[in-house]
Structure formats: C-alpha cells, structure tokens
Amino acid sequence: MDDKLRRLQLYELEMLNTFVRICERNGLRYYLTGGTLLGAVRHNGFIPWDDDIDVAMPREDYDRFARIADGELGSEYFFQSADTDPYYFLSYAKIRKNGTTVYEERFKNARFHKGVYIDVFPLDPCPAPGLLCRFLFNIMAVMNRRGTEDSGEECVTYREWTGRLGHALLGILSPQGLVRFRKKLLRISGRLSRGKYVASYSGAYGYLKEVYPVKWYEKVDLKFEDGTFSAPAAFDLILRRYYGDTYMEIPSEGKRKRHIVLDA
C-alpha cells in the first residue's frame, strides 16, 4: 500500500475513534456506511485503496452532535457544516483535522476548510417509497448539487429530471437561502414520515438506493481495523443495493475510486 495513503487512513481512523468516543459518552447513535461499511464487511478495515471514512447518524443524533461538537472536539478538530463554515453549503457534515490540508479534485476551487476529514451523513425520517418520497429526494439532490457549486466546485451537471427549470428556480436562492429552504424541506419530510423509513438525502447513490426501512438500522458491531464499530444490522441488504450482489468481489484496478489526490 502507498505510504501516503496509509498515513491518511491512520489520521482518519484516529478521527473515527474520537468521534465514536464522543458518541458513546453522549449516548448518540452512529453507523458505518458507504465504502467504510463495505471495508468492514469485506476487509475488516479500510478498502485498501479507500481514502475516506463515512458514518451516518439518525437526524436526532446528528443534530445533537452538531450542538456539542465544538466543545467535545476541542482545538484539534473542526466540525464543518453549513452553520459553522461560511463557504460550506453541503447538506452533510465533515469533521476536519486542523493543521492539515487535503486536495480533492472536485473541491479544488473551494474556499472552505480543507483539512483531513471524515464524512458524517444524516439519516432523515421520510415518507414511504413512492411519488412523494421520490419528489422530496430529487429536490434535495438538486439542492445538494447547488450547494456543491456554491462551495466552489467547478460547474456540475444537474440531474436530468430537473432540466433548466429546476436549476433556474433554485438559482434564485442565495447560498444562505438554500440552507434555510433545505431545512424547511427536512421538517416537511419529518412531518410526513410515519416512522417506518429513513432517507440518506445526502447520499451518492440516488433515490432507489438511499431510502431504507428503519428496522434495517438496528445495531450490530463490525470489526474495522483494530476496533469494533456500530453498523446497520441489514448491512448485507444495504451493500447489495449500493454495489450489487457481487460486492464481496475485488474490483479491477480501473474501477477503484479515490476522492483525494495524494500526489498534490
């Protein structure tokens, strides 16, 4: 393994352990997700070429963590969200390590804090899968794209379904207005939920893969590197949604994705 990559992973593992200690001390729920969940299941640790860590939290716990993060993380780390960084408008948070910098191609023009990070995704109550749920999910997806653009990413292509109308309607919102509108939609989603489903509106895999029955998120512990961490009990079902039935197979080198440019 590349020495730079391994050093980055060890930084991130240290950050994950700090995050988990705060969650345990305050009775907050969290789950490994995305590539980190896949790494735990397939490799008992990092996917060998992976360069970030992903965790998810139920919205209630996510909001509580956001309120206590500044005092709990101390001076070594920074909890980055649209409320704490004036140039950051994404719909999920990052915990950044102060005094470090990483280079992400898609955010090379961004003005926000760019320290080594782990991603923290909220899981929001949502309506049952159907037209209403899909509508809310797609509106959120477009706003997430808009937030990425406002954060300094080079021009991105909006989802096909929105067309120019969706872009124009959201384009009238300031970045701060975008954040306020997103919060209103989340409140609507919560009111329309009957407590049976959650959505990862910030997730990368789209409506068909990012809406789950709440019962899938019963807790199970999985080994990851030198520790054990909380994961969704239905991890097999979730990973099959994300990566297909062959998720335990090692992909060819051409299909191994990274987020961070290590040679910058």
What does the model show?
- This protein has 264 residues and is an alpha+beta fold.
- It has a domain at 3-124 and 216-255: 2-Layer Sandwich (Beta Polymerase, domain 2).
- The chain is built from 7 helices and 9 strands; from the N terminus they run H-E-H-E-H-E-E-E-H-H-H-E-E-E-E-H.
- The strands form 2 sheets. Strands 1, 2, 3, 4, 5, 6 and 7 form a 7-stranded mixed β-sheet that branches. A two-stranded antiparallel sheet has the order 8-9.
- A hairpin with a 2-residue loop joins strand 8 (219-224) and strand 9.
- Helix 4 (131-150) crosses helix 5 (163-171) and helix 4 runs antiparallel to helix 6.
- The longest helix has 24 residues, at 3-26.
Provide key terms for this protein.
about 260 residues; alpha+beta; Beta Polymerase, domain 2; 7-stranded mixed beta sheet; two-stranded antiparallel sheet; 7 helices; 9 strands; globular
Which percent bin holds the helix content? Answer: 25-40%
How many runs of DSSP E, i.e. beta strands?
9
CATH architecture of the domain at 3-124 and 216-255: 2-Layer Sandwich
The end-to-end distance, rounded to whole angstroms, is 18 Å
Order of helices and strands: HEHEHEEEHHHEEEEH
